[in-house]
Design a protein that fits this description.
Distance between the termini: 43 Å
Mean pLDDT: 95
Bound molecules: fe (ii) ion
CATH architecture: Up-down Bundle
CATH class: Mainly Alpha
Order of helices and strands: HHHHHHHHHHEEHHH
Strand content: under 5%
Length: 319
């Protein structure tokens, strides 16, 4: 979000009566629909959220997509193909939602391909072994699910409805990932070590994924307008409460010696995640950022003939 002075300047330009009515509608639990009046700050922030979310879905399909040819059985391969296909579908749905706010999809794709568009940190890392596919499906989709399921109550109607569909499919992704981990953890010593190794590598990025702790009062509009419903740390706390017991139950060690639940404060205590790493990675300098964007550009170029054929077909039908 822009800094406070810019926010105030944007809000000062809005019609106060319309702004008050807009806020009353949201407070009553009504959804804002594409043709409705909305403040410019709401529209711009939503576009940024949606674009980032859509980019993350299609970039997130890559690390797992790379493993489709090496899935250890036909059953695993089918499940993984279905999951990857779902993720690309989520991207499609979210770009469509962003388009209802006035930003063309071509522009968003162009920004992603030229490195201007952002996507989540976790999709900038390599998926080194089959255990990584399990950890991604179970814990990364799990972390995303904590945020997405809570965000279903967002005030923008099309986003909220898209999230309902996305969350429905995500429950399958979690099962898919958990089943891979469960199988490996009931296997050989080497298989268990693979899972532990994947967890060691992914834990840092997962903790960073939720972002640095922010305060409810810093950008009150975000909460009043239901663009955010919980702070970053509230989401991280929920994730830890849901997953730490399950991870430990499988006999895995979480690579953070300071991680514990503080009964008095009713919250998880953990080693402060490496925020420099997070900002470096989302800024375009992750271990796999360049390779993944190159792959995305290649797919985009290879799909050009399909887009052109569809455009010609649409033009001919409209004529
Ligand atoms: Fe997804
Ligand atoms: Fe997913």
């Amino acid at each position: 979000m822009a800094d406070r002075a810019k926010i105030e300047a944007m809000l000062a330009k809005e019609d106060p009566d319309k702004l008050a009515e807009f806020e009353e509608r949201i407070a009553r639990g009504e959804k804002i629909e594409p043709g409705d009046w909305m403040p410019e700050l709401y529209r711009k922030t939503l576009i940024r959220f949606l674009q980032n979310h859509a980019n993350s879905e299609i970039m997130g399909a890559l690390p797992e997509g790379e493993w489709i040819p090496y899935a250890p059985s036909m059953k695993r391969k089918l499940a993984l193909i279905a999951k990857v296909q779902d993720e690309v579908g989520h991207g499609q749905l979210l770009y469509m939602v962003a388009e209802t706010l006035g930003k063309p999809r071509e522009k968003m794709i162009e920004e992603l391909l030229n490195g201007k568009g952002r996507f989540q940190n976790v999709f900038n890392y390599p998926a080194e072994t089959w255990a990584d596919v399990g950890i991604i499906g179970w814990l990364i989709d799990g972390a995303a699910m904590v945020m997405q399921s809570r965000l279903r109550a967002t005030s923008y109607g099309p986003y909220s409805r898209a999230l309902a569909r996305i969350c429905y499919e995500e429950t399958f992704h979690l099962m898919q990932g958990y089943d891979i981990i469960l199988t490996l953890m009931s296997g050989t010593k080497r298989q268990k070590e693979m899972v532990q190794d994947a967890l060691n590598r992914w834990w840092g990025p997962i903790m960073q994924f939720f972002g640095p702790a922010d305060k409810l009062g810093k950008h009150p509009e975000m909460y009043r307008w239901k663009l955010k419903l919980y702070t970053n740390d509230q989401n991280r706390q929920k994730f830890l409460s849901q997953y730490v017991p399950k991870i430990r139950e499988l006999g895995l060690t979480i690579p953070d010696p300071n991680l514990r639940y503080d009964e008095e404060k009713k919250r998880w205590v953990y080693t402060e995640p490496d925020w420099d790493e997070l900002f470096r990675v989302i800024g375009g300098d992750g271990p796999m950022t360049k390779e993944r964007l190159a792959l995305r550009r290649l797919h985009y170029a290879e799909g050009r003939w399909i887009r052109e054929a569809l455009e010609r077909f649409a033009r001919r039908r409209a004529a």
